[in-house]
Specification:
Layout lengths: L7 E5 L5 H17 L2 E9 L6 E2 L8 E16 L6 E13 L2 E4 L6 E9 L1
Antiparallel strand pairs: 1-5, 2-7, 3-6, 4-5, 4-6, 4-7
């Protein structure tokens, strides 16, 4: 697995509720303040998708990432051979140059990806 250096990692394992919405809002605000540029996208990841590339948009390096999904997804960063399964995930202080997701949940997943960096 590729090494990922981070200052802050936060993984939410809570249902979509007022608490997770508030946490997500606070993280988005934090990412926005700490970066030169930001990008947000809503993606659909069909069941059975393997290593679907997530566009970084105009960013070359993602320093902060917030991913929320209605189904568990496996994410891989920086070309890692092995990913990790998450439903809600946030990281700050990273140096992400590539990001992909896979879906083996049995149904299509809708996800929001918020990225901040340079």
């Amino acid at each position: 697995m590729a090494a990922l250096q981070v200052d802050y990692v936060f993984s939410m394992a809570v249902q979509r509720a007022a608490q997770s919405a508030n946490i997500a809002y606070d993280l988005v605000s934090l990412l926005d303040e700490a970066a030169d540029e930001a990008a947000q996208q809503f993606i659909e990841v069909v069941n059975g998708a393997v290593d679907q590339v997530i566009s970084l948009g105009s960013l070359t390096t993602v320093e902060g990432l917030l991913l929320t999904s209605d189904e568990p997804l496996t994410i891989k960063v920086n070309g890692a051979a092995v990913g990790f399964q998450v439903k809600n995930f946030a990281v700050q202080g990273a140096a992400i140059t590539s990001l992909s997701v896979s879906n083996s949940s049995g149904v299509s997943a809708s996800a929001r990806v918020v990225m901040a960096g340079t």
